[in-house]
Amino acid sequence: MHRRFIAPIAITLTCLLLLGASESKLHFLSADAVDVVQLLPYPPDNNSDEYHREIEQILKIQVTRSDDEIARGKSESKLTVFAFADVLGPWFTAENCPQTAEFYKKITSDSKYFTELGKDHWKRPRPPRSDDRVKPLLEEKDDSYPSGHATRGMIFAETLAEIFPHEREALLARGRQIGWDRVIVGVHFPSDVYAGRVLGHALARELLAKPEFRAELEKVKAELDAHAVQSAATR
User: Fold this and answer.
1) CA angle 23-214-204, nearest 5°?
2) All residues at 6 or more sequence positions from 184 whose CB lies less than 8 Å from its CB, including other chains
3) Nearest CA-CA partner of 82 in 97, 92, 96, 72
4) 66-93 per-position pLDDT tens digit
5) 210 vs 142: CA distance, rounded Å
6) 39: CB partners within 8 A, 6+ apart
7) I want to staple 188 with a disulfide (CB 3.0 to 4.6 A). Which of 100, 173, 182, 222 is the partner?
8) How many angstroms separate the CA atoms of 107 and 29, rounded?
9) Domain residue ranges in the chain
10) C-beta atoms surrounding 9 within 10 Å
11) Beta-carbon neighbour count of residue 187 at 10 Å?
12) DSSP summary character for residue 135
């Protein structure tokens, strides 16, 4: 085979392998479940007034954030569903709820697939790479838009609310807080967070519409209900 034909074939095969590897991250959703680029607006241009207002907001937060906010934001760096123990109670841990932990690892993988599509499309730099006055409290190397934490925070909140409907408002508030904490620690713009919330709600709707997802959610509900009852009985 002539050398000039080898390179295009190799590139094509590499792209196909990368696509297959990326889609292998999906457990419940298909790759076309949500069109991220069509769903979300473009992030503010760096020359826009909106961008400059976002930078000023980040800089203001940088000098007013409390020690408690800083500690909370840092604790959410490696985000799992058990960040919602603030709402559900101290019994809500990976050690107590192994089935729940595995279930939400799958959800996390699905969520990251879609947020990575957005990040790869818009390639928005993180606030510290846009303005050297921003001093982040965490190091993040990927792109900024949309926020993966904000996306997962809303998916986690929406799905947990199916199990604990009486805690729905508190769960949603915690999910929103998880996203905003990324602004507090200086690694996201507010518009990254708002976009992540929109995407998170859209992905949650798609997940909850799938019978196979609902079936696994019922198993998780049984595990969590048992712990919640036991915890209530020991109070």
Assistant:
1) 60
2) 61, 65, 69, 70, 73
3) 92
4) 999 999 999 999 999 999 999 999 999 9
5) 30
6) 198, 199, 202
7) 182
8) 9
9) 3-233
10) 10
11) 24
12) -
